Amino acid sequence: MITNYYTLFHVAAELEHDFAGKTVNEIFTQHRGELVISLNESSAVIIIGCEPANNFIYERNSFSRARRNSADLFTGISGAEIEKIFMHPNDRQLHIRFADKRELVIQLFGSKANVLLADALGTIQATFLKKNDSMITGAESSQKAAFALTPDIFRSTYSDQLLTSALKRMIPQFGPVLVRELLTRTELNGDLQVHTVSEQEIERVVESAKELREELLTQPSPRIYFEDNTPVRFSIIPLRHMEQREFQQFVSISEAIQRFRASLHHEKSILQEKADIVRVLERERDHIERTLNKIQEEAEQPNRAVHYELFGKLLISQLHTLKKGDATAVVEDFVSGSNELVEIPLDAHLTPAKNAERYFEKAEKSRHASEEQRLRLGELKRQLNSAATLLSLMEDISTTDDLRHFEEEHRRTLSAFGLKAVKSGTIKKEEPLPFRVFTVAGGFQVWAGKSGENNDLLSTRHTAKNDLWFHARGVGGSHVVLKIGTGKGEVSKQAMDQAAGIAAYYSKMKKSKLVPVTMCEGKYVRKPKGVPAGTVTVEREKTIFAEPVLPPAAKIPTDEEHH
Fold first, then answer.
1. What is the C-alpha to C-alpha distance for residues 24 and 78, in angstroms, rounded to an integer?
2. Strands 24-31 and 71-72
């Protein structure tokens, strides 16, 4: 009801009372679709909103103009004295008339809202928003709007329409909220057709409409109604159809409008923040479900480790019959007892013994991969459960306090899904790091480079002085950094061994049982000028012998475990 005719009628009266006789200081805009009029003799301002879905006008006690990104408008009326402020008799159009008879015409017509400057003859001289269809309807006086509703006119004109629709057309100044209020006061069903309503009921509707209009014009009592602490309705009179709701009453209509708009803006911000968190969690949940399904499908496939090991054993048993250069070997399967002939692909560049060794290595690698998948499967199920729990809790959040408590209570779990709290207490989605990221013992993060250029980025831009830096000694491979401060307490030997294992895994010695890995603090890593990408020099290094394996998938910490 902020732009309802009767609301604007009283806003015009308040502005007339407070600003008639005062002179314009400046008119400017610093927000899209919003105009501010400041006066020389008052700290109060008039604020007008012309956005299609956000029309309004009200008085605000004080307002500070921004030093940047604001623009002066209608400069020709600076210093002009306001003679009167009044309402159009039938439309949502306010007039600010100056002593020289020029007028600022404020039209709050939804998507066609605008502010126009007209001369004494009504000719438009300037507009706030550039619209080609701007025009001014006459408003010679501020007399109350005509009210021609009678029972005969009502029945004859709208006989075949529903009562609600008929009232909206017959009394356009009421709008949907006041039509509903009228039906509540008359205890009539708005879904009835007019011709089915009795003469006495129509007379009751007409009389109640006149009484309601008189109350709107003469007894303003501005208030905001709430539902579960959420503002749901602004009104300038008590509404019987909202009498079960809590409400807050105000002295002036401008104060109520300002408070209602601020509450709605705040509520929209909370709802948007909640929606952002839900969207991220739903995306993460869907991604986890797809990954789980893929892993489970792969687990149902035949065991490749057993397959490769069988090939290796059969080749070993027939070395005397094979020679280098063979592309395949056809061998009787005595291992499984089937005695069937098995065709085994060979690398013609390798000896039969080397081919057998290659299949044993494939079998070992496949067993490692299966174990990693098994560990990952359990972890993904825990992650899926965490996401489902958070989404369920989000359904009960409806206030700022609810959201802030949720963020604080589940901060670590949210962080594990890439949702990070910022200083204002709101949540934002973290940008993904451009490196491989692992978690080792103690909850410490380990970052690994993906290429020469990526290694340079990690070692020169993302490594703190006290971080621990790792690299497989004497061979090419990823730069690996254990980030100090990302876990709890001191870095353990197990964490350092796991980080070294990551460096060994992403190196050219990946297939070795043990790999020498260089470790030093980040402050001793230096990138000389002119050397190839990924090349650095190190000082005060130590050597760790590590097995080239990746750590098990990190378990998402729950907030209960943290506490």
1. 5
2. antiparallel
Q: Does one domain contain both 100 and 187?
A: no
Residue type, 300: E
DSSP 112: G
Cα separation, 310 vs 304, whole angstroms: 10
Q: Of 217, 244, 271, which marks where a domain is finished?
A: 244
106 with 47: CB under 8 angstroms?
no
pLDDT in tens, 355-398: 999 999 888 888 877 777 777 777 788 888 888 888 888 877 76
Per-residue pLDDT at 399: 63
User: What's the Rg (C-alpha) of the chain?
Assistant: 38
pLDDT of 392 = 84
- The pLDDT, as a whole number, for residue 134 is 63
What is the identity of the amino acid at 549? V
Do 123 and 155 belong together in one domain? no
Q: What does residue 93 show for φ and ψ, rounded to 5 degrees?
A: -135, 120
The three-class DSSP label of residue 369 is helix
Per-residue CA distances from 297 to 133, 136, 370, 375, 553 (Å):
64, 70, 13, 16, 19
Q: How far apart, in whole angstroms, are the C-alpha atoms of residue 80 and residue 349?
A: 97
Cβ–Cβ < 8 Å for 215, 237: yes
Report the SS3 class of residue 337.
coil
The per-residue pLDDT for 34 is 93
Measuring CA to CA, which residue among 481, 532, 480 is closest to residue 506?
Answer: 480
pLDDT tens-digit series, residues 225-243: 988 777 889 999 999 999 8
For strands 468-472 and 230-235, give the pairing.
Answer: unpaired
Is residue 348 in a domain? no
Q: Are residues 122 and 161 in the same domain?
A: no
- At residue 291, the pLDDT reads 84
Residues in the chain: 563
Gap between the terminal Cα atoms of the chain: 49
Domain co-membership, 122 together with 11: yes
Per-residue pLDDT tens digits for 70-102 = 999 999 999 999 999 999 988 899 999 999 999
Tokens of 317: 């048993």
Percent of the chain predicted with pLDDT > 70: 89
Asked whether the beta carbons of 409 and 275 are under 8 A apart, the reply is: no
* 365 touches 347 (CB < 8 A): no
Tokens of 221: 């009592």
Q: Mean pLDDT across the chain, nearest whole number?
A: 86
Query: Which range among 160-169, 203-212, 344-353 shows the weakest confidence by mean pLDDT?
Result: 160-169
Q: Using CA atoms of 182, 183, 188, 191 in order, give the dihedral in degrees to the nearest 10.
A: 140
d(CA 332, CA 319): 13
Q: For residues 473 and 519, what is the distance between their CA atoms, to the nearest angstrom?
A: 9
432: buried, middle or exposed (CB in 10 Å: 19+, 13-18, 0-12)? exposed
Q: Report how far residue 12's alpha carbon sits from residue 10's, in angstroms, rounded to the nearest whole number.
A: 5
In whole angstroms, give the CA distance from residue 518 to residue 479: 10
State how many domains the chain has.
Answer: 3
Q: Which structural domain range is residue 507 located in?
A: 436-559
Both structure tokens of 205? 């509707």
